[in-house]
Amino acid sequence: MSPLRWTCKSTRALARALTGAGHPVSDFVVRRLLHQMDYSLQASVKVNEGGSQHPDRDAQFRYISGQAAAHLAAGDPVISVDAKKKENVGEFKNGGREWRPEGSPEPVNVHDFQDKELGKVTPYGIYDIGGNTGWVSVGTDHDTAAFAVATIARWWQAVGRPAYPRAARLLICADGGGSNGYRTRLWKTELARLAGETGLQITVCHLPPGTSKWNKIEHRLFSHISMNWRGRPLTSHEVIVETIAATTTRTGLAVAAELDTARYPKGIKISDQQMRDLEQRVLRRHEFHGEWNYTLSPPRDPPEPH
Fold first, then answer.
1. CATH at residue 206
2. Contact criterion met (CB below 8 Å) for 12 and 27
3. In 3-state terms, what secondary structure has residue 28?
4. Looking at the chain, which runs of residues are DSSP E strands?
5. How confident is the model over 76-98, as pLDDT tens digits?
6. Is 51 inside any structural domain?
7. What is the pLDDT of residues 153-165, one digit of tens each?
8. pTM check: above 0.70
């Protein structure tokens, strides 16, 4: 009848409390009773995105599916993009375990203070849904929209154009925030520039709010990269790039990676006038949730450089 509905006590503490209450019992018996009641030791699982569910969430997923099917049927590439979490470069502990000789774990730093010389890196990835291939740029500067689009541009020059020589369109599936967020003006501006440089008609479909973990790149590429370097310190830029490039799966995933040491300054502002000009010349918003779905066509007149 106690108002206490939960406890963080260990089995030994529970056994002492029960013994003190007149029920002598060992911690072994407490563990056995908990198992009989279908309890087990478990860690928390990240499944709640937070916030309320958008009423058009399922409809947006169906819209993305329709767009992807149409592009793939026409022989046009469909890619899923996102930035992986930043990683410390140096002798730092990395989650997971790997096979090593008995009693010789990999020695790493006690503290995770950032190495001032090596710093951090941001892997920005592209997953080609039709080709089951990945491309990752390991950036040493800020994770900005310019960095994201520069990665897409390098992927197109190195992999996309040879794989899809007749393609006139490109579909990009991205989540709703970060450097490729649907509210980010620089993202649209840089994509417009890319459309002008490549001649591609670029369509972007954003995942609805609160569903970023449903992005295909998370499960088709990033999860395999994390498993490939588990338990291994990322001691240098070369180690990171080579480890990513060595990622494979039984389904035939192939990954290319490169280091991007270019500077991508933060704080670049796109004015209201620039956005109006963009929408008049190259940006067309779709009828269904135009904030999430839009197409950028190659402009007749090339845009002015920054």
1. 3.30.420
2. yes
3. helix
4. 78-83, 87-88, 120-128, 133-139, 169-174, 201-206, 254-260, 283-285, 293-296
5. 999 999 999 999 898 878 877 77
6. no
7. 999 999 999 999 9
8. yes
